[in-house]
């Protein structure tokens, strides 16, 4: 376009109306060459940085808090949409504002934030992970990205991937389970989905923020090899796959250094070894210094005027620059990275602004996610699926199933259309409110079983609930455990006497089905007494229809656990989370105990049998897995396996491939594929193996190395149900 006179169409406000007029814009392309979308994001960012004043640069490297509960002397920044964070635009150069919203389960909102606003809630992160289906994760990401864009946001603080080292972590429901390959693959796909909508996605919380107790003070202690092969491998895979525009460094310390001033994490690993081109933003209250943080790789301080001791990336950073403690090139690099991510996501070309949202289609995405990720944990004597058309009576019990389904709490909380179905539950303020999404299972079960007398008991009166169960053909008991950001559960127990409720109902009616609404594994002392258990976690938008579809068999459950299910806390690496119920948390948490052996690898290394293993889940049909065969394709190691549906119903199965390196005690998930099969159908699946799961991280050479020797590969429907292993000889080396 250089040199050519061009006529552009411009919108001019004439007497209050927007009129399209032709303007001679010969200067336009040359004046703002960074607007040329044919250039690479890096080149565009470089052109723009070169034009910026120091004040403009400093404007971009900090965000303002845009949320509720602010001190009166710090009003909402002008132009910000009430949410989580805001960076004002730089109009002189056409740089749009950054409007940042939480989070991974939908566009977060609370009545305190944007009264009357609503969004579509996705089911909890473990549901998406339990689908073992990258497409499900992508579609969910694209859905929430689309809603964010249509509400005017161009940054989603979404991409939670902290590994589940402890089932009591209050934020497990925002994450994707315990395995680096599964979590990395699915979160990477969710990020890709979000960014397909021209919204920057933020993978978080980097890193090892694997418990909430003491999150602002505690140091996660772990060796380099162990973290590279576990939590950091999950980040590595997700970042490769999803290419998120930003990374949020976490609150905690890692090996003694704050994550947001951790040179190892941000500089050496993320930016050097992984060549990450995007920017690192601090968590809200996660910044602790100017020079140290800047030099360690922090690029943007988030909401420091409210949450940090001071706004480090303003006067303190300018002073550090003047003293020569930070180089100007570092400040320019911060700005370059932020702008580069904005260009890469299409934030300039596709401005986020209010647009109509297809809530019906989006609810269908949420429902499909739950239908793909709900896990059938138990099904005695084929109690499920219910023959819904013929059912005469159903008792629906507990967990406000007459009103809705539970959501997890904290910054990721989404208000669905219709608001909170059970308002007023404690805590009403942070980390509350406790929210029930308005999708009542009772109503959906009535629709599912039109001839049945479907009655509800709230479960407060255990005897009344048991009496209702006794006179009904089946009892569906909903149980709940609320979990939330900023606190961990002290134990694995269900609260409020629900164990006694389930036991009493099961004693009254052996056809008792338990539906679990929870953030992570819970103890189930009544398990042997009930007929069936369906895990739906926090099940999100239109959950009631999905639950009814799963119970009736309209949809065949195909979710597989993305985490191991401990029998009790004594099986875990740490029997308790100190100070989870209050008091002063210790200075450190020792993740070297399990190291890289998170979850199922811990159970295997100790020879402990969990209640349910990683990868486990039942179906209404049966599958046959053929023998595993090795294959290589273009130097890529892969295996082939034939999976057949040997039952009478259509359904989906997950083929899971585990590798045991020579002399290793434990197997690691190295590849997987999900396949949908009609009755009698079979399909040969080709499954690529992730090389890093066959390798060890070599801390001397800073690279992945094969030990060399005989590798044992096995395939099956769960980590503990595998076919005959096949041996593979591989040479030692990178
Ligand atoms: C959370 C982040 C969140 C941020 C902004 C923090 O408390 O840890 O996950 O994105 O708040 O709301």
Blueprint (SSEs and pairs):
Blueprint: E1 7-14, E2 17-24, H1 28-31, H2 41-49, H3 54-60, E3 64-65, E4 85-87, E5 98-101, H4 125-130, H5 134-150, E6 155-156, H6 180-195, E7 200-206, E8 219-221, H7 224-228, H8 231-242, E9 246-249, E10 253-254, E11 257-258, H9 263-273, E12 279-282, H10 291-296, H11 304-307, H12 315-322, H13 328-345, H14 359-373, E13 375-379, E14 393-397, E15 405-406, E16 436-437, H15 441-448, E17 453-457, H16 462-470, E18 474-480, H17 498-508, E19 512-517, E20 532-535, H18 543-552, E21 588-590, H19 600-606, E22 623-625, E23 629-633, E24 636-645, E25 651-660, E26 668-677, E27 682-688, H20 691-694, E28 696-698, E29 703-705, E30 709-716, E31 726-730
Parallel strand pairs: 5-6, 6-7, 7-9, 8-10, 8-21, 9-12, 14-17, 14-18, 18-19, 19-20
Antiparallel strand pairs: 1-2, 3-4, 4-5, 10-11, 13-20, 15-16, 22-24, 23-24, 24-27, 25-26, 25-30, 28-29, 30-31
Order of strands in the sheet with most strands: 3-4-5-6-7-9-12
Number of helices: 20
Oligomeric form: single chain
| Poorly predicted runs of 5 or more residues | 1-28
What's the overall geometry? Answer: globular
Do you know the CATH topology of the largest domain? TIM Barrel
What class, by secondary structure content? alpha/beta
Number of strands: 31
Termini distance? 48 Å
Number of domains: 4
CATH architecture annotation of the largest domain: Alpha-Beta Barrel
């Amino acid at each position: 376009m250089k040199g050519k006179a061009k006529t552009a169409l411009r919108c001019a406000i004439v007497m209050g109306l927007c009129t399209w007029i032709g303007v001679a814009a010969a200067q336009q392309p040359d004046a703002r060459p960074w607007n040329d979308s044919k250039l690479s994001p890096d080149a565009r960012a470089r052109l723009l940085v070169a034009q910026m004043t120091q004040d403009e640069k400093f404007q971009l490297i900090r965000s303002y808090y845009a949320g509720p509960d602010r001190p009166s002397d710090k009003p909402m920044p002008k132009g910000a949409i009430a949410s989580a964070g805001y960076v004002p635009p730089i109009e002189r150069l056409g740089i749009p504002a950054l409007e940042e919203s939480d989070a991974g389960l939908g566009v977060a909102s609370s009545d305190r934030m944007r009264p009357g606003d609503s969004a579509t809630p996705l089911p909890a992160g473990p549901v998406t992970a339990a689908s073992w289906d990258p497409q499900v994760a992508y579609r969910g990401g694209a859905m929430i990205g689309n809603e964010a864009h249509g509400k005017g946001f161009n940054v989603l603080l979404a991409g939670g991937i902290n590994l589940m080292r402890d089932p009591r972590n209050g934020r497990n429901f925002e994450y994707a389970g315990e395995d680096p390959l599964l979590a990395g693959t699915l979160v990477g796909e969710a990020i890709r989905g979000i960014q397909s909508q021209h919204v920057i996605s933020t993978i978080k919380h980097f890193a090892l923020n694997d418990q909430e107790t003491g999150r602002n003070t505690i140091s996660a202690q772990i060796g380099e090899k162990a973290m590279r092969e576990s939590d950091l491998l999950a980040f590595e895979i997700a970042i490769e796959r999803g290419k998120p525009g930003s990374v949020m460094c976490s609150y905690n310390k890692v090996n003694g250094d704050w994550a947001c001033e951790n040179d190892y994490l941000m500089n050496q690993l993320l930016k050097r070894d992984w060549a990450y081109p995007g920017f690192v933003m601090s968590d809200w209250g996660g910044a602790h210094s100017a020079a140290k943080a800047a030099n360690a790789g922090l690029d943007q301080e988030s909401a420091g005027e409210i949450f940090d001791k001071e706004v480090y990336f303003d006067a303190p950073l300018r002073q550090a620059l003047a003293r020569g403690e930070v180089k100007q090139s570092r400040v320019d690099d911060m700005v370059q990275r932020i702008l580069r991510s904005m260009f890469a996501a299409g934030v300039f070309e596709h401005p986020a602004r209010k647009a109509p949202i297809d809530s019906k289609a989006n609810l269908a995405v949420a429902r499909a996610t739950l239908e793909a990720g709900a896990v059938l944990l138990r099904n005695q004597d084929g109690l499920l699926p219910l023959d819904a058309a013929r059912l005469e009576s159903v008792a629906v019990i507990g967990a406000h199933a007459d009103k809705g389904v539970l959501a997890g709490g904290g910054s990721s909380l989404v208000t669905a259309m219709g608001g909170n179905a059970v308002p007023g539950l404690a805590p009403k303020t942070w980390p509350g409110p406790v929210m029930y999404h308005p999708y009542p299972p009772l109503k959906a079960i009535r629709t599912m079983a039109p001839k049945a007398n479907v009655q509800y008991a709230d479960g407060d009166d255990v005897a009344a609930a048991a009496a209702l169960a006794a006179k009904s053909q089946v009892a569906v008991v909903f149980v709940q455990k609320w979990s939330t950001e900023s606190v961990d559960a002290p134990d694995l127990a269900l609260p409020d006497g629900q164990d006694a409720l389930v036991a009493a109902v099961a004693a009254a009616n052996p056809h008792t089905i338990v539906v679990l609404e929870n953030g992570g594994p819970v103890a189930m002392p009544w398990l042997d007494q009930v007929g069936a258990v369906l895990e739906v976690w926090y099940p999100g938008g239109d959950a009631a229809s999905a639950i009814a579809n799963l119970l009736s068999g309209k949809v065949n459950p195909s979710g597989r656990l993305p985490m191991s299910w401990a029998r009790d806390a004594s099986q875990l690496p740490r029997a308790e989370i100190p100070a989870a119920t209050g008091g002063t948390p210790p200075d450190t948490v020792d993740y070297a105990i399990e190291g890289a052996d998170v979850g199922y690898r811990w159970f295997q290394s100790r020879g402990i049998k969990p209640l349910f293993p990683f990868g486990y889940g039942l179906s209404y049909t049966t599958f046959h897995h053929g023998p595993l065969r090795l294959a290589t394709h273009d130097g890529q190691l892969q295996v082939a396996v034939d999976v057949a549906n040997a039952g009478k119903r259509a359904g989906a199965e997950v083929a899971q491939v585990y590798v045991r390196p020579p002399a290793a005690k434990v197997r690691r998930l190295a590849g997987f594929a999900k396949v949908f099969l009609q009755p009698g159908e079979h399909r040969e699946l080709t499954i690529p193996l992730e090389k890093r799961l066959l390798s060890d991280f070599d801390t001397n050479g800073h690279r992945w190395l094969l030990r060399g020797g005989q590798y044992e590969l096995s395939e099956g429907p769960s980590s503990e149900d595998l076919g005959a292993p096949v041996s593979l000889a591989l040479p030692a080396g990178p």
